[in-house]
Amino acid sequence: MSRTNFEELFNKFLGEKMTAEEIDRLRNLYDDENNFAVRDEMLKAVFANKASAETKGYDPEEIFQELLARVEEHGVENETSASVVMRQRRFRTSYAAAAVLLAVLVAGACFFVNNRKHTSPATAPGIASPKPGGNKAVLTLADGSIIALDSAQNGELSRQGGVRVVKIDSGLLSCKANLTGKGAAGYNTITTPRGGQYQIILPDGTHAWLNSASSLTFPSAFEGKERKVTLTGEGYFEVTENAGRPFVVVAGEVQTTVIGTHFDMNAYNDENSINTTLLEGAVIVSAGNGRQLLKPGQQALVDNSTRSLSLQQVDVLRVIAWKNGLFDFKGADVFTIMRQLARWYDVQIAYQGDLSDVKLSGMISRRADVAQILHLMEATDRVRFFMQGNKIIVSPYK
């Protein structure tokens, strides 16, 4: 295929208007050494546009090298030394978030599949595929009033306890200190539905991202010796440093204490454990009689049945892929994958047959329709899907 056709496919991919067959052709061309020069030229052109990276203060060369490592990791079954080195490098949000975002441009529809044509029975003609989630949340104020954030206009929504609650933009809420305000601090709760996500800047400047089907309860002003919030579901936090007043996240019986750091906490009730993953700084995770100090790259797991606490090393970029607009799986069992799809697309899941040994790897944008994801998963010849209204029926591939 000529340089012109490669460029056409690549540009079509950037516009997110590709079929699964076209994506497969692009991936094959991407690995063809005859296209290496134009491939690198076009990738670097993307990095030259800061709007494409949606971030500030990044180093294009660092992002480019990170992207190459991620593409390499998802393009072969065995990791190379280069990809291992890239993942072990110190995590820096300014470029790593952009790298993960841009990785979807090349590996976004990359499940490890057979190269043959595959017709998906997941959706019948005339049946609409469930659409991806978006910026949706409800804010319940201390006085009991409720605000639907996705329909609220930008600007001040409330003023209470010396704090102004302001909607800055679609998907972003800020609680700003109002020095002239008076009154006791009350507790507010921001809740995302299934198929929703939202960001909030707390009164102390801490930035929190909420995944779908999650909630965060926080005071209108932090008072006392600690800054305590309560989480259900999943949240990612970039905590403002304050050595004298630690930031505490409570999720069920698990408590995570930090001074200033970046970490993810997954506390869904339907998962096997409550997981706290550290990206930068240090956190202390406490559960029952257990207590662990985490280092960057470590994840603390608290078993929901036994309440036992354990540690493991993880790929932090994979853990926070949801925050950067991706589903990123590696050897994940089909039940774990389907729980994530159920929350984001607000669908019901039913299982038929023995799926206990089905594990898949891949990465795809959370902006994709669910039918596209099911089609790619079916192409592994491991699993099969049928849609019945808002229900996805999952069975072993036969």
Task: For this entry, give a set of tags.
Jelly Rolls, 26% helix, 398 residues, 3-stranded antiparallel beta sheet, 19-stranded mixed beta sheet, single chain
Please explain how this structure is put together.
The chain is globular, with a radius of gyration of 22 Å. With 398 residues, it is an alpha+beta fold. Helix 1 crosses helix 2, helix 5 (60-75) crosses helix 6 (81-88) and helix 5 packs across helix 7. The chain has 4 domains: 3-111, no CATH class; 132-221, no CATH class; 224-314, Jelly Rolls, CATH 2.60.120; 321-396, Phage tail protein beta-alpha-beta fold (3-Layer(bab) Sandwich). Strand 19 (298-303) and strand 20 form a beta hairpin. It has helices at 3-14, 20-30, 36-47, 50-53, 60-75, 81-88, 93-107, 316-319, 334-345, 370-378, and strands spanning 110-111, 134-135, 138-140, 146-148, 155-160, 163-169, 172-177, 187-192, 196-201, 207-210, 214-219, 227-238, 247-251, 254-258, 262-267, 273-280, 283-287, 290-294, 298-303, 309-313, 326-333, 348-351, 359-365, 383-388, 391-396. The longest helix is centred in the N-terminal third of the chain and has 16 residues, at 60-75.
